[in-house]
Specification:
The chain is α/β, with parallel strands linked by helices. It starts with 13 loop residues before the first helix and ends in a 20-residue tail after the last helix. The N terminus is likely disordered. It is globular. The strands form four sheets. Strands 4-5-6-7-10-11-12-13 form an eight-stranded parallel barrel, surrounded by six helices. About 45% of the residues lie in helices and about 15% in strands.
């Protein structure tokens, strides 16, 4: 809370003391006077004052690692993570950039023409502000990666957020190394930044090490890199920042942050001792960051920055429907569960989704059970076919036609394989429902609300509990920059309370709750 406090004045009344404690941009001094216990923002020098405890200023900008903000040209150590299908929208990215945050546009699963139009608008409206564009890559959609990198290069986008990488694409290497130079001190300076989101130490290691020499050699032979760029590549990690993704909405390995982040930070330290980069890779934290307590826990674990996701989806700038926002704003911490995903559906890949108000998790699990038990659509019992057609609201042959027509535009070979294999055809039909359920949620299809697939995690419920009673309780008041400012301000407030507690100060329990007010600014 930003409070007006007279310089040097010692506050004695409870509300005055609380305002001093809450003024995290200024130091806090707890003193004893002839009138009892008081608090002020200046070191006590007046006669009759004795210092009992003190806490330095802890503005939100000072949380985490200042190198993150300096490197990306932002003010705060917080990033708004990407949400696929453009849910992390152009409007969301612009709002966050103008407020001093880094945000990543959710390009995953969108047609290239939509991504190109979005990136062109970002480059036009915030040309001098940092932002990132995300791509979810598993090594199979190389054509999509090539097209995206060309789009970023064309619009001079300087930050790529990558996630889902089991293999490092040559296109990512080319993007990373193009234009790399040395400064006067001899330090390697990349023109393009890479933020990698990982959930496994082995994947993190691929981004911590310098890029593969063989692939670099191929890029030089193709004329896409110069000899100088290839030489400097040996002194540069593939990523500037690695976001450790713990239990989160959407695809998640479900690992706790308290275990995963220290393990990857230790791996970073090991690699840094080996390669001695001029700028060590920073480690950030994502997954479950919805309240100041969660953010402070991440910073306490050593996170250089935190990444928010689920909570941004309920904000007015998010590229989803008002109906989905209402459902998100009503969620509690137990209103989420895992369900089969359209990505690698056959293998049983799951995503964490909102359960409250939607039958999607139940329907998706039933589809996977049917897939496991039967060899094709014709093998389904009559009552199951009838039930599916009620859920789909189409005959199964019509769903097959729609799914095949769409797939022909992206992967014609998959249609050929499915035509020859009844089980593959069944999977394609079932994936139609899984894909459409996401589109219905984004579009806000009113007669499909019970089938909405909304990727989200318990951080959303925790956030709703935290903001209850404030103006942010109502989703229509949730502006993304305001939400994230309050999150960081609340984190700084908790850090201040921890400082005073360690110094032996005991404050009323009520004071531990950060007061969310409209006029609050970092």
């Amino acid at each position: 809370m930003t409070a007006t406090i007279a310089d040097g004045a010692v506050q004695h009344e409870p509300e005055g003391i609380r305002r001093v404690v809450e003024a995290v941009d200024r130091p806090c001094f707890i003193v004893r006077t002839g009138r009892g216990i008081g608090a002020g923002t200046r070191y006590p020098t007046a006669p009759g004052l004795s210092l009992l405890a003190s806490a330095p200023a802890v503005p939100p900008e000072h949380l985490g690692d200042s190198r993150f903000a300096r490197h990306h040209g932002t003010r705060f150590p917080l990033m708004a993570g990407s949400m696929a299908h453009g849910i992390a929208s152009v409007e969301l990215v612009i709002a966050m950039a103008r407020a001093g945050f880094l945000a990543s546009y959710g390009a995953a699963a969108l047609p290239l023409r939509d991504v190109d139009a979005a990136v062109a608008r970002l480059a036009r409206e915030i040309p001098d502000l940092p932002f990132a564009v995300n791509f979810i890559h598993d090594g199979r959609d190389e054509r999509g990666m090539v097209e995206l990198i060309r789009c970023l290069t064309r619009h001079r986008v300087r930050c790529l957020e990558v996630s889902g990488n089991m293999l490092i694409s040559k296109e990512v290497l080319h993007y990373r190394l193009s234009g790399v130079t040395q400064d006067r001190s001899g330090a390697v300076v990349p023109a393009n930044r890479v933020v990698a989101k990982v959930a496994h130490p082995d994947i993190a290691l691929r981004f911590l090490r310098p890029v593969d020499r063989t692939q670099v050699g191929e890029l030089v032979a193709e004329g896409r890199l110069t000899a100088d760029e290839a030489r400097l590549a040996e002194r540069l990690p593939l990523a500037d920042d690695i976001t450790v993704e713990a239990d989160s909405g959407g695809h998640t390995d479900g690992r706790p942050l308290s275990v995963l982040l220290p393990a990857i930070a230790a791996l970073r330290d090991q690699v840094q001792r080996q390669y001695r980069y001029a700028e060590p890779v920073r480690i950030g934290a994502a997954g479950g960051i919805g309240t100041p307590h969660a953010a402070l826990a991440a910073f306490s674990l050593g996170a250089a920055y935190v990444v928010t996701g689920s909570i941004n989806q309920s904000c007015v700038e998010a590229g989803t429907s008002d109906a989905a926002r209402r459902m998100l704003a009503a969620a509690g911490i137990t209103d989420f569960e895992s369900a089969p995903s359209p990505v690698a559906f056959e293998a049983g890949t799951t995503v964490q989704v909102l359960r409250a108000g939607s039958r999607f998790p139940v329907q998706a699990r039933r589809l996977h059970q049917l897939y496991d038990r039967h060899d094709g659509l014709d093998a389904l019992p009559a009552h199951e076919r009838a039930r599916l057609e009620r859920v789909f609201r189409h005959r199964l042959d019509e769903v097959w036609r729609q799914a095949a027509e769409h797939k022909m535009t992206t992967d014609p070979a998959a249609v050929t394989r499915a035509t020859a294999d009844p089980k593959r055809a069944m999977a394609m039909v079932f994936r139609w429902y899984l894909a459409m359920s996401s589109r219905w949620a984004v579009a806000g299809e009113p007669d499909r609300e019970a089938d909405y697939q909304i990727w989200c995690g318990p951080a959303m419920g925790a956030f709703n509990d935290w903001v209850r009673g404030s103006h942010l309780e109502e989703w229509s008041n949730r502006q993304v920059a305001d939400v994230n400012r309050h999150l960081l301000r609340g984190t700084a407030h908790l850090a201040r309370l921890n400082q005073l507690t360690l110094a032996g100060v005991r404050l009323p329990e009520e004071w531990t709750r950060y007061r969310i007010q409209r006029e609050n600014t970092p």
